[in-house]
Structures are given as C-alpha cells and as structure tokens.
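task queued by scheduler; priority normal; single chain, no ligands, no partner chains; default sampling; output format set to structure tokens
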Amino acid sequence: MEVTEVRFHSPPPNFHMGGRLLAFCSITFDDCLVVHDVKLIKGREETDMPFLAFPSRKTSQRCSCGTRNPVDNHFCGWCGKSMPDYLPQRDRIKLFFDVCHPIDAEFRGDITQAVLEEYSERCHDGEIIRGVVPERDSEGTSSVCQELEVEPPVSQIETGSDSD
C-alpha cells in the first residue's frame, strides 16, 4: 500500500497535549482507504523524532439499562445506576483500544516518513498548521521545521534559487 495523500487539520479548540501535538492528519492509502484523526506528536526528548499516534477509542461497558459507559465511570450516564467497580483490576483493563494501526514496523516507518515529508513541505510553504503560520528565519525555513530538524524539500530549495 502506498500513501497517496496526507491532509492536515487543526485539533479541536479544547484539545490539549502539553504542546507536543504538532498536527492532526488524515492519511489516504492507494486512493481507496482513509484513516482519520492520526496525530503527529513531537517526541519527549529533543533527540526523539516525531511519531504518529493512530486513532483509538475508550473502552466501554454496558449498564443494565443498555447504555454504554466508559469503563472508568462509577455511575451510568443515562440512568444514574452504580457501575461495577474495576479498581482492583485496573492494571489489567485497557482504557483505550486501537481502531486501526500498522502491524509491520517497516510499513509504520513508511507512513511516518510520508507524513513527515508532507509536514515539512507544508512548514516550508508557510501553510497554516494548528492555526498558526510558522515564523521564518533569514533563510526562509520555518521554526517548526527547525524544531523537527527537517530539511526543506529539495524542489523548494531549487525553485527558490531559480527565481532570484
């Protein structure tokens, strides 16, 4: 499978990840499959590369009234009945599960590389990412590209030098 398109969009206004979230994106594979809400996240350490977090959902359980509730809720959101307490087993319960994810490490690397290349192009073009137009230095490289230590695409550099 080939990545045929990557679209970036801003996160919801109330979404917060401590400044590590770089962008949300939707990835299209072979012009026939789209995965939405993939997060591009900056690594914890300065030496860590950004990584992709694929979409996940919160695990839920059913109340006797039939309503689904998150596993960590103590009361049903619909009828107000007490929900079973899973605290003693919390370390065995997954609060989130993946909706989709790459199985092969090589394929994950290919997807990550395609997204980072597209992201660096968008940074270099000055397009709006996360509601902010990245500032440029005297060489025309955006601050976001410098943070990620991503080189601007060669085609952009050649095009810029031809126009002088």
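post-processing summary
- Residues 60-92 form one domain.
- Confidence is low (pLDDT under 50) at residues 129-136, 152-164.
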